[in-house]
Amino acid sequence: MIDLAAIEDARHRIAPHIRKTPTLPYAQLKDRVTGGPEVTLKLELLQAAGSFKARGAMNRLLTLSDEQRARGIVTASGGNHGLAIARSAHVLGARAKIFLPSNVVEDKVAKLKQWGAEVEIVGAIWDDANAAALAHAERTGATYAHPFSDPVVVAGQGTLGLDILDDMPEVDAILVAIGGGGLISGLSTAIKAKRPATRIIGIEPIGSPTLHACLAADKLVALDKLETKVATMSCRQTDQAIFEIARRNVDEIVLVSDDEMEKAAKALWFEFGIAADLSGAAALAALQSGRVAFAPWERVCALVCGAGNDGIG
In a 10 Å sphere around its CB, with 0-12 CB exposed, 13-18 middle and 19+ buried, how is residue 216 labelled? Predict the structure, then answer.
């Protein structure tokens, strides 16, 4: 699907349009943690438009022709990819229409409108919204931008892996939230090419174990039902190429509950004043739940990948 060269090309291409987000030690907490690994938060929620999605979206739009952009951009999203497409379209002077499922967080809808996007709510899950987006593209000629099943988007997300290595060149493990799988595919490709020993640990909701189910079956599978309220991590089926990358690069996938992500989001707000959405809090939820084992000497990067207020209300 992609390789390191594609990710490095994407990094050069999107550099003028995205932010270099900071890191922060997970330390000086209300309840002191002793004997655990050295944890660093990568604050990608401070990225343009509020998530890592800005990377892939900008890479996608920059590789379109003027004619393709002029026809307008359409996509389906649980929220963050839509925001990234809307912001990228705004920067490049294009029109954007975003289809969203009914469980999208209202705050993200308001932000989409502020970016100038046209918004339409369709169905209960992302798959419903995506069918509507594809139909709109077919009907109008608008350019469709898939949130994860697109090598150009995945290469853009992979630039985050290179940024993490800039910040933490000897990182031992990275905790990555999974929705459709584009982020973990791109990031893991970059990391494994540059530092193969680093463990890539994915986190999915118990109610949407998309890649976890594929890896358990050793084949691409579709979930019978989705039972998470986290729209940005809700996906019935990923892409075959995404699955192949995950099977090759991802060392472990752990499942967390919606309640555990809410608890982690509240902890980020209380301890640091960080307003992460539930997907952004997933990495910390995996740490707090104790479902991932680390040696005390390990250097761990917990990715805070998205901003929002759905976990702190």
Answer: exposed
Alpha-carbon distance of 212 to 135, in angstroms, equals 30
Q: Tell me whether strands 96-100 and 73-76 are parallel, antiparallel or unpaired.
A: parallel
Select 53-144's CATH number: 3.90.740.10, 3.40.50.920, 3.40.50.1100, 3.40.50.300.
Answer: 3.40.50.1100
Q: Are 242 and 181 in contact (CB under 8 A)?
A: yes
267 Cβ contact partners less than 8 Å away, ≥ 6 residues apart: 281, 284, 288
Q: Which of 51, 50, 28 is nearest to 39 (CA)?
A: 28
Cα 148 to the chain's mean position, in Å? Answer: 9
What average pLDDT score do residues 105-122 get? 95
Within 13 Å, how many C-alpha atoms sit on residue 94's CB side? 29
| Mean pLDDT (the chain, rounded) | 95
pTM: 0.95
- In order of 208, 221, 242, 272, the CA distances from 214 in angstroms are 12, 5, 11, 36
Q: Provide mean pLDDT across the span 239-253.
A: 96
| Cα 129 to the center of its chain, rounded Å | 18
pLDDT, one tens digit per residue, over 273-282 is 999 999 999 9
Identify which of 22, 31, 21, 28 has the alpha carbon closest to the alpha carbon of residue 288. Answer: 31
Region 140-144: mean pLDDT is 96
